[in-house]
Amino acid sequence: MRTLIAAPAALALAAFALAGPALAGQPVTLKAEVTDADGIVTLGDLFDGAGAAAKTPVAVRAGTHVMLNALAVQGVARRAGLDWANAQGLRQIVVRGGQPAASAPAPAARGNVEVLTWARSIAAGEVIQPADLVWGKAAAAPADAPSDPDAVIGMAARRPLREGAAVAGRDIAALEVVKAGEIVTLTFDADGISLSLQAKALSGGAAGETINVQNPSSKKIVQAVVTGPGQAAVGPAAGHMKLNRTTRVALR
């Protein structure tokens, strides 16, 4: 979806909305794979669209990787004139040394390998907790097996999961934070204009997913991007938030 809301729809939204402050800075998105080549982590290593702030240092990587506090990174970006929405609510970001690897399906690992397994049987829809995961040995690991527990914690089970089975990425999904029929705060931000109104979600979704929402006054239906519990957005800013949902080397 290249255009989330047309100009006439934006004007209709404005008729019901309240004025708000402009965006804090240039919107940026976290890279799908965060790496640095020289041991100095910069805003350009972390974000697409960093522009003139790309060379701003954020941290030093002394080993094979460094773990950054997402809130602290957001503060550095803001002071440099960048606006990272962090729509997925990441707590930490892992930066690894080297160049980003080419995107390709990972083959299944073979042999006596260490994998994350389920510590108990889990029902579909349950939210994964730290105590639900335990490291174990397996003859083969799923091709999409997560390498870090924090990539699984806070996600929801797509289907019933059996105790002792290896954890696979296809078994989990982002937690749905907007429910169908829920009243959400719908925002529009563009060119220094910030507007908001209450709308009805016609479908549910996780952060970064596109859902249909309806203006209760005009009954007009538009597509919006979920930005958090009870919140959705339309307009250019929503496009950046949707991109943030792509797979990345980062911890939830």
UniProtKB/TrEMBL annotation:
<dbReference type="GO" id="GO:0042597">
    <property type="term" value="C:periplasmic space"/>
</dbReference>
<dbReference type="Pfam" id="PF13144">
    <property type="entry name" value="ChapFlgA"/>
</dbReference>
<keyword id="KW-0732">Signal</keyword>
<dbReference type="InterPro" id="IPR013974">
    <property type="entry name" value="SAF"/>
</dbReference>
<dbReference type="GO" id="GO:0044780">
    <property type="term" value="P:bacterial-type flagellum assembly"/>
</dbReference>
<dbReference type="InterPro" id="IPR039246">
    <property type="entry name" value="Flagellar_FlgA"/>
</dbReference>
<feature type="domain" description="SAF">
    <location>
        <begin position="113"/>
        <end position="173"/>
    </location>
</feature>
<protein>
    <submittedName>
        <fullName>Distal basal-body ring component protein FlaD</fullName>
    </submittedName>
</protein>
<feature type="signal peptide">
    <location>
        <begin position="1"/>
        <end position="24"/>
    </location>
</feature>
<dbReference type="InterPro" id="IPR017585">
    <property type="entry name" value="SAF_FlgA"/>
</dbReference>
<keyword id="KW-0574">Periplasm</keyword>
